[in-house]
Amino acid sequence: MRIVIDGMFPAGGRFDPAFVPAGWNATKADANVYREVIAPFCRGCHSSFESTIPNTEDPLAFATAESVRTRATSVVDHICGSGPLGMPTAEITTAQFFSSSARAVLLQWLGQPGACAPAIDAAP
Ligand code: HEC
After folding, report:
1. Distance (Å, rounded) from C-alpha 61 to C-alpha 4?
2. Residue with CA at minimum distance from ligand 1 atom 29
3. Is residue 40 part of a domain?
4. Whole-prediction pTM
5. 44 within domain boundaries
6. Residue 92 belongs to a domain
7. Is 18 helix (H, G, I), strand (E, B) or coil?
């Protein structure tokens, strides 16, 4: 959370809504997934996951590309049909997620391309 806030509101600098944290900036593909998927559809909730261990990021805070890549199976399960517990678990966010290219971008990046339906019925 702190990394995101400090990055978007740099001391003495201008607001930077396109900020990409270092953990997502190793490759262009990682940074693209961060901008197109994580920031708009996951970060609002996931950046608030806090580790109980001092000076460690909770892996569910999605602070690094690696933290998402290593749980690829879980991500695919949660996005593609895990019922009302599916992600992104908010109705409007889910509707926008599935009507944008974000799902495809994320699944492609995880090496698991293919169609999948929203986990919850988010038809407007
Ligand atoms: C509205 C808030 C919210 C949004 C938006 C959201 N999540 Fe979550 N997510 C949660 C919460 C809360 C949990 C923990 C649920 C639990 O522990 O049962 C969770 C859990 C998960 C898990 C399971 C974690 C594990 O143990 O592997 C995955 C995967 C996940 N989210 C992926 C995503 C992805 C990818 C996005 C964006 C496309 C997203 N979520 C958007 C709130 C959200």
Report:
1. 11
2. 75
3. yes
4. 0.87
5. yes
6. yes
7. coil
CA distance 16 to 109: 25
Q: What is the pLDDT of residues 11-32, one digit of tens each?
A: 888 888 889 999 999 999 999 9
For residues 37 and 26, is the Cβ–Cβ distance under 8 A? no
- Paired tokens of 18: 């396109």
Pocket test for ligand 1, best of 41, 50, 60, 62 (most atoms within 8 A of CB): 60
- Full domain range(s) for residue 26: 22-109
The domain tally of the chain equals 1
DSSP 36: I
In a domain, 37, yes or no: yes
Residue nearest to atom 42 of ligand 1 (CA): 45
Residue with CA at minimum distance from ligand 1 atom 4:
88
Q: What atom of ligand 1 comes closest to residue 90's alpha carbon?
A: 1
| 68-92 residue pLDDT tens | 999 998 898 888 866 556 778 788 8
